[in-house]
Write a structure and sequence with these properties.
With 83 residues, the chain is α+β, with helices and mostly antiparallel strands. The protein is built from two helices and two strands. β1 and β2 form a beta hairpin.
Length: 83
């Protein structure tokens, strides 16, 4: 099982490496007031993906914390109701 996991990770790494190599052209990201950031396309895509993940986790954090609090409350109630 460990060997299969290692092979899958290696294949995924090689696919992502090939993607980064094929998309190494420099692109410009334009901001307000004429500001511009120039970076390889693969880096821009990686940063956009990471920012999306962070914003998604931030948006879901309240629900995650509420679920965690409720789980703790239910575990305490179950423990107290045991004879």
């Amino acid at each position: 099982m460990r060997a299969l996991t290692l092979v899958i990770k290696l294949v995924l790494f090689l696919l992502l490496l090939a993607f980064a190599i094929k998309n190494s052209e420099v692109v410009g990201v334009h901001y307000l007031m004429g500001l511009e950031w120039r970076a390889p396309l693969s880096l821009v895509l990686l940063l956009a993906f990471a920012l999306g993940v962070l914003l998604g986790l931030l948006g879901a954090s309240r629900q995650i914390l509420n679920n965690r609090r409720e789980l703790i409350r239910l575990r305490k109630a179950k423990r107290l109701s045991k004879p």
